[in-house]
Amino acid sequence: MQELCQRSLWLGAYVPGWAQNDSAKFQSHEFESITYLLHFAVFVRPNGRLDLRSNGLTRSKMRSLVAVGHDSGRKVLLVVGGEGASEGLRIAWNSKNLTRTVRTLINLVEMYGYDGIDLDWEPFPRLDAQLYVEAIKSLRRNLDEISRRRTGTRVLSAAIEVDINDPVYMRSLTQSLASIRGYLDQVNLRNCLLYGTIRLSILVEAHLSMDSELLMQTRQFAPSLSPGFNPIN
């Protein structure tokens, strides 16, 4: 546990394509704390087709953000999914479309020079957990192949919503995370609490080399964070 707490934070900054001109203007002191940028996002339509336009991703914006990150010594990940994309993700990752979906995403990573992919499936697909696991494993294999052919290690991360009021959901989540440990470089556990009209998002990062017992502590995840989890603002 002490070793986990001593690990350095991975602090990510989400940069949405539709607001990139404003949100990507970082000051030098801001880059000192940011370790990577997440370009938000490749949306997935209900028919499973990948969509760059919905979130304002264009060729020029993709090349621009990658250049900004690399010039500052930061990795840039391409986010896939987001709120409202769960139906499309279910289609995109089924056995019929898995190979095509992965190939398309890998082509985007190589074409624009991204350092990896962040899979954002909201909420975590409890009923489609096996699809999720297969998607992660396939992305890992293909990103590793790029790493073998090109300079630098490609990163695979995931943003997962935590629902502390649903023990069945949390049990499925922790079981799936245990089955893909070693495939993800990091996981962002996302907890959104509603206080009246105020939506408070708490992002927590945890490395997947942690023990299963520690992963199970996400069932008690709350603003007073469990030991071993590193909060980020």
Q: At the fourth CATH level, what is the homologous superfamily?
A: Glycosidases
Q: Which percent range fits the helix content?
A: 25-40%
Please indicate the count of domains.
1
Number of distinct helices: 9
The CATH architecture name reads: Alpha-Beta Barrel
Structural class: alpha/beta
Summary tags:
233 residues; globular; 9 helices; TIM Barrel; single chain; nine-stranded mixed sheet; disordered N terminus; alpha/beta
Give an overview in words.
α6 (98-112) runs parallel beside α7 and α7 (129-149) runs parallel beside α8 (167-179). The chain has 9 helices and 9 strands. It has helices at residues 2-6, 20-23, 28-31, 59-71, 86-92, 98-112, 129-149, 167-179, 212-216, and strands at 12-16, 36-44, 50-51, 75-82, 116-121, 155-161, 186-195, 198-206, 230-232. It has one domain (2-232): Glycosidases (TIM Barrel, Alpha-Beta Barrel), CATH 3.20.20. The protein has 233 residues and is an alpha/beta fold. Strands 1, 2, 3, 4, 5, 6, 7, 8 and 9 form a 9-stranded mixed β-sheet that branches. The radius of gyration is 17 Å and the shape is globular.
List the helices and strands and how they pair.
Layout: H1 2-6, E1 12-16, H2 20-23, H3 28-31, E2 36-44, E3 50-51, H4 59-71, E4 75-82, H5 86-92, H6 98-112, E5 116-121, H7 129-149, E6 155-161, H8 167-179, E7 186-195, E8 198-206, H9 212-216, E9 230-232
Parallel strand pairs: 1-2, 2-4, 4-5, 5-6, 6-7
Antiparallel strand pairs: 2-3, 7-8, 8-9
Helix pairs in contact: 6-7, 7-8
